[in-house]
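Hey, quick one: can you model this chain's 3D structure?
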Amino acid sequence: MSDKYYWMWREEKKKRQEVEGENTIIKGIGNNSPEMKLMQKEVEALKTQLYADNEKAQRRIKELEQDNKIKDEEIGRLYNKIR
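Sure thing. Here's the predicted structure for all 83 residues.
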């Protein structure tokens, strides 16, 4: 009886190792496929664009803050004239 289980165990182990090997091959092919490489390039392009857009937005925010500061100072001067 134990001999039967030993052979069942060996067969299961062999099948499991084959499946793990195939899974490794599939993952390797998937990461190096033309589609995956194209997606990686697209992701990098989007990151670059996002970074550039973020820099533009930060510059615009600084410009608006400076404009607001100038306008606040002008409002203060005009308010003091009215008093």
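One thing worth noting: The helical segments are 2-32, 34-82.
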